[in-house]
Amino acid sequence: MWNVQMVKDLRQFNVYIKTASKAIPHREELRKALSLWGTFRLGEKIPSLKLKELLGERTIAAVDGSRIEYASFYPYSLVLLRTLGKCTGREDLEKSKVITPLHAETAALVYKKKEKEGIGEEEAYRLYLKEELAHLEILTALEIAEKYKPCLLMLDGGFLLFDQFAEWRKLYKFCLENDIILVGIIEEVATSVLAKWLDLRLDHSLRIYDREILFGLLDKGEYLLFAADKNIKKNYHTVFARLGSLPQAIGCDFLAEQREKITQAMNLLYTLTPRHGQGIPLWLQITDAKVRLRKKETEKLIENCLEPELRELFFRANRERRAF
Amino acid sequence: MQVVGMTNEREVWIASNTEKFRLNELVIIEDEELNNPVGEVIETYALNPFIPGVDEKSSILVDQEVVASLSSLGYNLEEEMIYTAKVRILSELFYPISTGAKVRYPCFAEVEELLLKTSPDKGLALGVILGTEGLTASLPLPYRRVAPLYEKGEIKPQTGVPFIFDYRAMNNYPHIGVFGGSGSGKSFGLRVLIEELIKKRVPLLVFDPHYEMSFNEVFHPGLPDDFKETFADRCLILTVGDDTGVKFEALTPADLCNLLSAVSPITEAMENAVTSILERGDSFTTFNQRLNDLMSLLESPNDDDFKKSFMASCQNIDEKKREAYLNRLMALKKQVGQLSTLKSINWRLNRLERQGIFRDQGIRQIEEGLKAQKAVIVRGSIWMLKVYAAYVLRSLYGKRRVYRDALQKGERAEEKFPPFVVVTDEAHNFAPRGEQNVPSRREIREIAQEGRKYGVFLVLATQRPALLDDTVNAQLNTKIIFRTVRSHDLNVIREETDMGSEEIKRLPYLPSGTGFVSSPVFGRTIPIRVRAAKTSSPHQINPFDELETVDERDGEIMNIIKECLPVNASNLVDLIQRLEACGFILSQERIINYLDMMVERGEIKREENRIVGYIYRLA
Questions:
Q1: Using CB atoms and an 8 Å cut-off, which of residues 274-313 of chain A contact chain B?
Q2: For A48, which residue in chain B has the nearest alpha carbon?
Q3: How far apart are alpha carbons A292 and A174 in whole angstroms?
């Protein structure tokens, strides 16, 4: 299982990151420093009755997607994409797509991507899949927005994931025109902007990501809103918030034009988030759970739809037959 | 509703996010290739994927406020339920059902064949089939009002398809067993079964060790008028020793031995002695006389002394006869041998006599009752009935057999004798499993094995099927099983019926009046709820209630006591005399008891006096 060298290496790594994490200033210092860049605010839970009053006939919506692969190895891959738009009290909206590089058309697109980005073919394929799912999500979001005109529309992930598609502009416009607050919920914050702003440096070359800075920084229900000219990415307004009990913060992307709606939106999100847990609004969690493609079901489905010989020919990897 | 997961040709899982499945309900699985088979729900489950189970760490639902917020936005988390059920296919299939097949509820016409084997006027309406509540609306009129239900002290209209037992099918699948522990509804079920048989004018011979089988009181005032019915005129209640008994003159030596052994087991020597002593046409008196004379003979120091005293004792009888009798005694003495054997026979015989079993009436009344197609209810203690049943069954079964055999052979039968059904509770007493010699077992076994041929059938109820004779148990083609808890009994039920393990698992928890019918007539186990009875058992008063109520007699005594107040506890003579004059003879203690009871009830008061003790006065 393991050998002495492995243990040694891992212990060394432990020391390394420990040193690095010590370089992060204390909470109070950080808060003081960050308050120069933005403001700490406390979210408000809206009572159910008031919530109804506030929203009237309007609703809350969320869009999420799921991807699952049935494969032996590239290019013997069959990918199912599914997206779900869920609006409170309304019917769900579902979209799906099947992708395989065995398809000539797909192969051509992947090849184009490979040339453009200058990366390996398989990597290009992964990127292609990610974008396809995001694209499908945007299409779903647009349809949900047009169909139900919700008060708040949650996307799963930051805006950078979506804004490369033509439909993004459409969604953007539609939301502004119809007073739909668009928010991208980022469960795992992966940016590293704050360290730069705060001029934090480490002795080693280790980078400090925003995640480490945000950890434990906020009180329960608190969020950090930066000044209008301080944008983490492009001209979107990113808010870091701790809506649940866990000390890790999530990110919320808002459109610059909707800055004055942020307080209302944050209160809504806080209201819809269980007190205990990782701080993701329940509605998004439910959407996520409903859209998720599960391995077993997918396998069953594919096995039902593909003839056994073809399945054997294309998708059965030798390693599946290993005895040990 | 659709079929999910792995299927086979016997069982499938079905799921729905709107329909709650109900145990035992029928569903149609739309699989064209397999002719849309019908299935029965045998297990049900519900799950909300957003409400974590106790073993999961996730706590997404702990926050009720968020749930309330969402609900005010028009989304109810409770609606995210997933209902699943295991379904057993009721027909024989050769391929598994395809996954994803649609599932729907049937209407009555589509499943009629599975639920009804005959109509209410031709069969016994015993109750309703559980799980068919959804079919009530599509039920044709004649089936709708045959089985009202009894629930929590009230009569409720029938819901579901009636369970109608085709008693004519007993010709192919004879005999019924009714099993269930105390309070399981077994006796109630047996009563309903008897009511239905009486309605069909089937001659019944009911052994009633509990003195509870009478059918002349209306069960509940809430019963619908067209359902109310009592059966006093179709029943004949007899008590062993009072109204009915064994005709001694008709006894064979074997019969007599059976009767004697019912009192207490007898030895081979005793059997030999009885065979030797009993003569054809003996009455109880002649047999008893002979037995006693023989005992005197054996007791006397020598034969000559006995002869002398005997010849001297009854001068009025012809001498020749006396001598013949004496010679017969002498011969018997050689055959019988031991005095102790005779003494043993004697005390058993006397006990039977004292119980009144040798009534002159014999079983003529029972025969007449059966011929009139009535329910003849024979009462007596278990002990008595055990003895009596053997005799009655042999006699009546014999008559029926003779009649049938004669018909078969084309001879003219001397006496017409109808087919009949024998019903008894506590059947394990009449036909117990094991070695001990119980006279009625042989008869019940014989009827169990051969009765069908002659049109004689058994309905045996017991709370201990494990104690019932194996041969008999195996012949009970139809079994109605109520709540059963003991593992022994459950094992027997598992072996002797076609019940599946899911149903066996439910047996210990069945509510009273709910049971399973396992019968080849249906070919599967049917869960039923027994209908409300039309009549009730006479003793349904809780004995503890009895203790708290004051009966008429008590009231009268208390009134007399009140009239004599005040009295003092150390001098009750006047009161005693007064009570005696009114016909109540009570001891001093009993009277003080009454006085104290009246004090407790606040009717009078008790004062303590230093000289005379307690004084009782009107309050």
A1: 274-277, 282-283, 285-286, 289, 304
A2: B69
A3: 28
Can you list the domains of chain B with their CATH numbers?
2-106 (no CATH), 164-245+360-530 (3.40.50.300), 248-354 (no CATH), 543-618 (1.10.10.10)
B57-78: average pLDDT: 70
The domain locations on chain A are: 37-58+151-280, 67-148+298-313
Judged by CB atoms closer than 8 Å, whether chains meet at A45 and B59 is answered as no
From chain A, the residues in CB contact with B67 under 8 A are 282
Contacts of B99 in chain A (CB under 8 A): 304
- Read off the pLDDT of residues B158-189 as tens digits, 9 standing for 90 and up: 888 999 999 998 899 999 999 998 888 898 89
Residue B60 pLDDT more than 50? no
Q: Chain A contacts of B70, Cβ < 8 Å?
A: 88, 272, 282-283
In angstroms, what separates the C-alpha of B427 from chain A's closest C-alpha? 55
Contact predicate B438/B401, CB 8 Å: no
Rg (CA), chain A: 23
Angle B302-B303-B305 (CA atoms, 0-180°, nearest 5)? 75
In angstroms, rounded to a whole number, what is the distance separating the alpha carbons of residues B295 and B275?
A: 16
Listed by number, the residues of chain A in 20-59 with a beta carbon closer than 8 Å to a beta carbon of chain B are 45-46, 48-49, 51-52, 55, 59
Write the pLDDT tens digit of every residue in B93-144: 888 888 888 899 988 888 888 888 888 888 999 999 988 888 888 888 888 8
Residues B162, B168, B174, B178: is their CA dihedral positive or negative? positive
Chain B: residue nearest A304 by CA? B99
Is A272 in Cβ contact with B75 (below 8 Å)?
no
**Percent of chain B topping pLDDT 70:** 95
Query: Three-state DSSP class for A313?
Result: helix
